[in-house]
Design a protein that fits this description.
Oligomer: single chain
CATH class of the largest domain: Alpha Beta
Number of helices: 13
Shape: elongated
């Protein structure tokens, strides 16, 4: 009853307020409704976040009325004045004010040059880089160079002077021999493990065997056979790169250590560390094994033997300027003779050469 009476009283007061101006009744009702909605929203929201566009709009509205009427805006007058002070401070600090203390900032060309010198010369310190910059006409303090290198996470000279892992294979390419296992599933869902070696400099591949159970004696004997083949081919590796697979026994490393070959093991779960061997596994799968159904161990040895011969003698390689590892050099564009094709593995692999005139 009390609520009904209060509601009736409110409606009566509103009618008395609106009856004096019947023409402006609808806009007044809309204004009252909007004010009540704003009051409800303010009770629900903890704090209103005004963006830059909202602030500019409210500031423009404040210029349309006198300062005594600012109470009509949804923000306090102190807030409008604070926004204006922040805008003046930002404009003064960015455009119109004097430059702050400290040295002038480096240009993008000088920053790129400093980073280039630091990466190309790992043993150069801040003072050494500063001297090189002075020769090129740039005067930069050593502390500025140190701060720039620190921001780009370039370590100091003693720490970045060591040989990184990506640079290790490139440095030892001449005598680097990579090896690895990879599995092959047969049509009977039997898993065969294939052991291969790859001479990184020449990109020559050696598929030494495949078996269902690679025992320590089997792996060691394949290592001996490979060493004999390398001696016949006048190839003497100095570094053997392999992962930490349990299939490689201690006797496997001893075979190469007896011939003066240093065995380097990659880190755990780091296939990119042995990228050359992993790349060859992807190549043989994409070009050969993914297109065939392997029936057994004998069939797999036959397939990999033909593919290894094709890879070594006929397939162009990017790292060798599109020359095969052991094949003849590319012929002149104006060579005579018809182009003949030779098929391997039932036409899966094609080799092209000119017929003898």
């Amino acid at each position: 009853m009390v609520i009904t009476g209060a509601y009736t009283l409110v409606c009566w007061l509103l009618r008395l307020a609106l009856v004096r101006s019947p023409v402006a009744r609808a806009p007044t009702v809309e204004l009252l409704a909007l004010r009540h909605e704003v009051a409800v929203l303010r009770r629900q929201a903890k704090r209103t976040r005004w963006r830059l566009g909202d602030r500019l709009f409210l500031v423009a509205l404040s210029r349309c009325v006198s300062r005594a009427e600012w109470w009509r805006l949804p923000v306090r007058p102190d807030t409008l004045l604070r926004w204006h002070r922040d805008l003046v401070h930002h404009n003064w600090a960015t455009f119109g004010g004097r430059r702050g203390p400290g040295r002038p900032s480096l240009g993008p060309e000088v920053r790129a040059l400093i980073l280039r010198l630091a990466r190309e010369h790992p043993t150069w310190g801040d003072v050494r880089i500063r001297g090189e910059l002075r020769k090129l006409g740039h005067t930069v303090a050593a502390s500025t160079i140190q701060l720039l290198l620190r921001r780009h996470r370039v370590p100091p000279a003693p720490q970045r002077a060591g040989l990184s892992w990506p640079a290790f294979p490139r440095t030892h390419t001449a005598g680097l021999l990579a090896c690895d296992f990879f599995p092959v599933e047969t049509v009977r869902l039997q898993t065969l493990d294939v052991l291969f070696f790859l001479a990184v400099q020449t990109r020559r591949v050696f598929v030494v065997g495949c078996t269902t159970h690679p025992t320590a004696a089997w792996v060691t004997q394949r290592a001996r056979n490979l060493c004999w083949d390398l001696e016949d081919a006048a190839g003497r590796p100095t570094v053997l790169l392999r992962d930490r697979d349990a299939k490689f026994p201690a006797a496997f490393d001893a075979v190469f250590a007896a011939r003066g070959v240093r065995v380097v093991r990659t880190a755990f779960r780091a296939p990119r560390a042995n990228a050359f061997a992993e790349r060859w596994v992807g190549t043989v799968r994409r070009e050969c094994l993914d297109w065939l159904l392997i029936t057994g161990e004998r069939h797999l040895r036959h397939v990999l033997g033909h593919y290894a011969e094709h890879y070594n003698t006929a397939r162009p390689h990017r790292a060798l300027e599109l020359q095969p590892p052991l094949g003849p050099p590319a012929q002149d564009p104006g060579g005579a003779g018809a182009v003949c094709r030779r098929d391997r593995l039932g036409g899966l692999l094609h080799e092209y050469q000119r017929a003898a005139a």
